[in-house]
């Protein structure tokens, strides 16, 4: 069974600083997808970034980037130049290549402080 | 930008009653999903739906649950006889195409409280 672990229940960062959220996963699959979703307070989850396991290059989306370490089964999210609007729950998620059953981690609550 | 919508935002029901949670996926999307999140716990996959049938379901999705696309826009989750442990946030999601692992777009959720 695939499991996703986020070991940091809560984190905080000063505005404009950089923060890294950790995620590890367990799978025997070789082809899969990894995602980071953001859930602002009282709002819906939105996709921040995704990574295909067959791609060696780390995905980036503006201020958001990942450090994908396939051998270590690690998928951390780096947020650069943190903004107050980045305050949210962040969920790491895993999906196998051949189905749509997405597995989520428990989430990390990130607070960006002014 | 198109969004997934869900109604109601909050539903309170008595144990043993039937509830129907409604979702309107993004209009050109072909895959639909339901997830739930019990307070303080992980978001859990319930079911995916494609071409008018269930494509995958989790062990949580037992005979008490059913899904339906009654018309061209709505996607519903029915719980036949609610239990206290069904209290949770229920999220609907949709994705665009037939390509597996297309990005899933989530609705705002329905908070179900079973008394």
CATH superfamily of chain A: Immunoglobulins
Report the strand count of chain B: 11
pLDDT averaged over residues of chain B: 92
Largest sheet of chain A: 6 strands, mixed
Estimate the global geometry of chain A from the Cα principal axes: globular
CATH class of chain B: Mainly Beta
What features would you highlight for this structure?
heterodimer, A: 114 residues, mainly beta, four-stranded antiparallel β-sheet, globular, B: 115 residues, Immunoglobulin-like, 50% strand
Report on the architecture of this protein:
The complex is a heterodimer of chains A (114) and B (115). Chain A is an all-beta fold and 114 residues long. Chain A has a single domain, classed as Immunoglobulins (Immunoglobulin-like), CATH 2.60.40.10. In chain A, 0% of the residues lie in helices and 53% in strands. Chain A contains no helices and twelve strands. In chain A, the strands form three sheets. In chain A, strands 2, 5, 6, 10, 11 and 12 form a six-stranded mixed β-sheet that branches. Chain A has a four-stranded antiparallel β-sheet with strand order 3-9-8-7, with no helix packed on it. A two-stranded antiparallel sheet of chain A has the order 1-4. Chain A is globular and about 40 Å long. The model of chain A has no long low-confidence stretch (mean pLDDT 93). With 115 residues, chain B is mainly beta. Chain B has a single domain (5-114), classed as Immunoglobulins (Immunoglobulin-like, Sandwich). Helix content of chain B is 0%, strand content 50%. Chain B has strands at residues 5-7, 10-13, 19-24, 31-37, 43-50, 53-57, 65-68, 75-79, 88-95, 104-106, 110-114. In chain B, the strands form two sheets. In chain B, strands 2, 4, 5, 6, 9, 10 and 11 form a seven-stranded mixed β-sheet that branches. In chain B, strands 1-3-8-7 form a four-stranded antiparallel β-sheet, with no helix packed on it.
């Amino acid at each position: 069974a695939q499991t996703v672990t986020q070991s940091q229940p809560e984190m905080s960062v000063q505005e404009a600083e950089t923060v890294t959220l950790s995620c590890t996963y367990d799978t025997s699959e070789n082809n899969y997808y990894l995602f980071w979703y953001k859930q602002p307070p009282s709002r819906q989850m939105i996709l921040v970034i995704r990574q295909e396991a067959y791609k060696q290059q780390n995905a980036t989306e503006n201020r958001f980037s990942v450090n994908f370490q396939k051998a270590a089964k690690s998928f951390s999210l780096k947020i650069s130049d943190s903004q107050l609007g980045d305050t949210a729950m962040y969920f790491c998620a895993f999906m196998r290549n051949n189905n749509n059953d997405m597995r989520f981690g428990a989430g990390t609550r990130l607070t960006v402080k002014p | 930008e198109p969004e997934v919508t869900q109604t109601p935002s909050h539903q309170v029901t008595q144990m043993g009653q039937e509830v129907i949670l409604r979702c309107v996926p993004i209009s050109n999307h072909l895959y639909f999903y339901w997830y739930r999140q019990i307070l303080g716990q992980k978001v859990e996959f319930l079911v995916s739906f494609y071409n008018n049938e269930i494509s995958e379901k989790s062990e949580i999705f037992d005979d008490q649950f059913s899904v339906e696309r009654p018309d061209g826009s709505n996607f519903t989750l029915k719980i036949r006889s609610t239990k206290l442990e069904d209290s949770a946030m229920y999220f609907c999601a949709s994705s665009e195409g037939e390509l597996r692992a297309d990005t899933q777009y989530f609705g705002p959720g329905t908070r179900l409280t079973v008394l």
